[in-house]
Amino acid sequence: MEILQQDGRPTDPEEVGSAADITVPGPGGDLVVRVYKPLGQAGDPVPVVMWVHGGGWILFTNDDYDAFCRALVTRTGAIVVSPEYRKAPEHVFPAAHEDVLATYRWLRTNATGLGGDPSRIAIGGEGVGANMAAATCGQLKQAGEPLPVAQVLVCPLTTTAQYGASMRDAADARPLNRPLLSWMMMHAFRGVTDSLKDPRVDLLPLSAQGLAGLPPTLIVTTDRDVLQSQGDEWCARLEAAGVRATSVRYGAVMHDFFGLAAVLDKAAQAQEEVALHLRQAFGEASAAHAVDGGPMRKPKVIG
């Protein structure tokens, strides 16, 4: 807080129309879901973003991601819905995945009652939240249900394997590193090795046929993250399956950088990149950020 004040940056939460917790039916009982609405919402329904927070299936709550969800409302004009899924070790896999899928299905049915447009729902998440967002899209596709219009995957976990060069190069990174990732896996899956290969969490082995038709995808990675190689490979496999996918890599920042827009310029850039992707998908880009409906933007690296 003192650093923000010294730099002349705002310290109050970004203003939105409303932010309230509601309960929705879930597979393990009622789920708490936080709903953020934009200022001045009236008249026509607005788009909706379902955002799934990270934390290794163990840590964090919606309170920890409040600042980003508020920023997302402001930057997109959308309603943002964030489920408080069940956490390990009390609730191991697949509890959290089931909660996220149930929340999305509830949202499809009830978006209108929130003032949202059920035909313009996007999904996204960070870390394991990105894993659950991607898994939700895959399960919806397999079930023949309507898909989100876009997905956003920030520093995603896409396989339970110790995958790629980044697992070595960022093995001692902070806050997420190989030992912490292994500890989270141990508690989230409680040593049940079969669960580690479940296609809802181990996404990389999915076939091109299983990926074809998934929604336009933005993947955000960093070069000091053990999960970077997974994110890059997931983007490549989506593209190979014909999915409109693009990636943006941010240099010299760590796994959890994305929520630090108040103090980190690259985080603010990344949040705007996410908002632009969503505005493109919603067809409501402002004149200053006008985009056509054509191919996704080229991958880029921001040093």
UniProtKB/TrEMBL annotation:
Keyword Hydrolase appears in the UniProt entry: yes
Domain (Alpha/beta hydrolase fold-3) ranges: 49-258
Keyword Hydrolase: yes
Segments of this protein annotated with the region Disordered: 1-23
Pfam family, one: Abhydrolase_3
Species name: Micromonospora echinaurantiaca
Keywords annotated in UniProt: Hydrolase
InterPro entries found in the cross-reference section: AB_hydrolase_3, AB_hydrolase_fold, GDXG_lipolytic_enzyme
Single Gene Ontology MF annotation: hydrolase activity
Gene3D superfamilies: alpha/beta hydrolase
Protein name (database record): Acetyl esterase/lipase
Chain coiled-coil ranges: none
